[in-house]
Amino acid sequence: MRRITVVGGSLAGVHAAEALREHGFDGDVTLVSAEFSRPYDRPPLSKQVLLGEYDVAEIALRPASWYEEQGIELRLGTAATAIDAKHGKLSLADGSELEYDGLVLATGSRPRALNVTGGAPGVHVLRSVEDAVALRPGLAAGRHLVMVGGGFIGLEVAGAAAKLGLEVTVIEASMTPLSRRFGDDVGHWYRELHERNGVRVICGSTLASVDVSTGGASITLSDGRIVKGDIVVAGVGSVPAVEWLAGSGIDTGDGVVCGPDLRTSVPNIVAAGDIASWRNPIFDERMRIEHWSNAVDQGRHAAATLLGDRQDFASVPYFWTDQHDTKMRFVGRTKDATDSRVEKLDDNKLIVTYGREGVLIGAVCVGSPRDMAKYKVAIQSRAPWDEPAAAVA
Ligand code: FAD
What we know:
Blueprint: E1 3-7, H1 11-22, E2 28-32, H2 64-70, E3 72-75, E4 80-84, E5 89-92, E6 97-99, E7 102-105, E8 109-111, H3 129-135, E9 144-148, H4 152-163, E10 167-172, H5 179-182, H6 184-196, E11 199-203, E12 207-211, E13 217-221, E14 226-229, E15 231-234, E16 238-240, E17 252-253, E18 255-257, E19 269-271, E20 276-280, E21 285-288, H7 292-306, E22 318-323, E23 326-332, E24 339-345, E25 350-356, E26 359-366, H8 369-380, H9 388-392
Parallel strand pairs: 1-2, 1-7, 2-3, 7-19, 9-10, 9-15, 10-11, 18-20
Antiparallel strand pairs: 4-5, 5-6, 8-16, 12-13, 13-14, 17-18, 20-21, 22-23, 23-26, 24-25, 25-26
Helix pairs in contact: 1-7
The chain binds flavin-adenine dinucleotide (FAD).
């Protein structure tokens, strides 16, 4: 194998390219990205960048010189449009073609559109550095931000806006924020956290219409209520960027369907990061993870697989979120949990654990990083649900 192309110039892609070199691959490495910016880190976009603590220049994943030193050719601002797997050719949006011997797919995800008749023009989303740059000037003290969606990104944006002195309203379809994934105890805790910090949280409502034509925004909810604001941001989840793979022969469904070692259904093509769905042996479950550490670890693993090191990718997913000076760390899974238990709860600390058929599978830890590390070990070793306290002692 002499020519490897990595499609997707972000977290998983950069780590895949880096790992190729670390494993001694000395052939051509090309990193193709639809974005014009040099690869950067996304988590600060909804945190330090919005708060004005980091400039966008500070969130680059690697300095420009690194790509040169590593002999990695960057093709920015050029989306891949098609794969001809039979002839080993990748088509790019600028009309050019790249011949490859191996491909790493790392095209991540993009924001889900708001489900409103006629769409919702003028509504911000937050996925890219351009999105953050477009949003930031609107976050001026005294204005009213309406955040549609009380997931992680929505709540982080709400928290940052409140800190900047905006009036903030969050509209969430579930009965409490985050409850669909973490249950009501976590949902109530986060609702109270936001309300204590001045955020208005409207739950159990979806959007009927959004009108941003008059300078301000007027949002009609499914129950007929009208919320008026100055600026609207939608954070209603994301979808894997797989549409460009149609006709390539690569199996897709909820993302790219990978084998246990992250190989796709087509030889010499692997996938990593938000886009990759694979069966995780620790949970005996097919999953697709949209978390930072998964993109790093899978990028590295997929590169090794492509070079012939065929090991299953086994991991305990990990995620963090920062809201109003609190940090939640989550390890494991909550999907199909048959049990959950509040281990600790006060205004500053929250620990909730999740079990599935007698086995500990997940833990939410707010304000207790050490507990998180212990739960991670316990989940990895498939500790029994009845004795998590012993497992983390
Ligand atoms: P992405 O980062 O989505 O990158 C994919 C890249 O591929 C993009 O540059 C895209 O433009 C490009 N691309 C797409 N299609 C094509 C194509 N056809 N051709 C070429 N290039 C293409 N995770 C956490 O664990 N904690 C956090 O606090 C956290 N905060 C976040 C805050 C924000 C605002 C966002 C958006 C995400 C956050 N995440 C967080 C999630 C984390 O950043 C993602 O899981 C991670 O970026 C996934 O990396 P990736 O490389 O798989 O995909």
